[in-house]
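dumping this here before i forget
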Amino acid sequence: MTRRVPLPEPVARIYKAAAELEALYPGRKFTPDGHLVGSIGEVIAAEALSLTLYPMSKPGHDAFDANGDVQIKLTAGKSIAMYACCVRLVVLRVVSSEEAEIVYDGAGQPAWDAAGAMQKNGQRAISLSKLRAIAAASFAD
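structure:
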């Protein structure tokens, strides 16, 4: 089960601008990435889940709440990558210029255990479909 959350208006404008550029220049992608996407994911999750963000570049976790530390990932694709296990993992996927869905909000260990082998860049990838399956299995328990 996924939950949709609205993008904050300034974030929605970024994604709308990217869509307009792609329409104007067919065959060229204008996907926001890197630090921009990381920060966008963090503010979306913080607003939607009432999290408190840590200062930028804190190793391991991006935010916390009364239940502990949270690592946040945002993608427009089909997978995310992790450098290490985390206490709690929140994964969001941009579904439109105005909404994101919460694909996974749960313990970090099951996601880490199901992730692929360590890549040359030190990251392990996991597909959103695997994360959805882990979420569904934990919801059924």
